[in-house]
Amino acid sequence: MKSFKCIVQDFKGLDAKTAMQLARKAQEYSSVIIVICAEKKANVRNVMELVGLKAEAGEELIFAIDGEDEEQAETGLKAVCQRCLQPDSL
Q1: What pLDDT, on a 0 to 100 scale, did the predictor assign at position 87?
Q2: Are 90 and 8 in contact (CB under 8 A)?
Q3: Hey, is 83 helix, strand or coil?
Q4: Strands 32-37 and 2-7
Q5: Which of 65, 68, 52 is nearest to 14 (CA)?
C-alpha cells in the first residue's frame, strides 16, 4: 500500500476540473485508489464522489493506493496533484 498527502491550494477548492483530471488519471491503473478528506472518503475514479468531498483551500487530502500497480499510480497521481494541489510526502 502506498499513500501520500496533498494540500488543496486553489482558492476554489477541489473543483470539478481537478476532480476530472484526478479521475482520468486513476482510471489508467488497476489499483484501488481512495482519497480521504476530513472524515469523508471517495473513490478517486468517481468525479461526483471527489466533488462531494467539498475540499476547500487549505484542506489536506490523503491518497491511499493498494494494488499491483500502486507505484505507478502513486507517481501518476502525484504528477496531477503537483499541477493542481501541490502534494507533500507522508
Answers
A1: 55
A2: no
A3: helix
A4: unpaired
A5: 52
For 1-90, list the strands marked E by DSSP: 2-7, 32-37, 40-43, 60-66, 87-88
Helices (H) and strands (E) in the chain, counts: 3, 5
Round to whole Å and give the CA distance between 47 and 9.
19
DSSP code at position 32:
E
Instruction: Kindly state the percentage of the chain with pLDDT values over 70.
Output: 94
Residue 37's pLDDT band (boundaries 50, 70, 90)?
Answer: very high
This prediction has a pTM of 0.90
Amino acid letter, residue 67: G
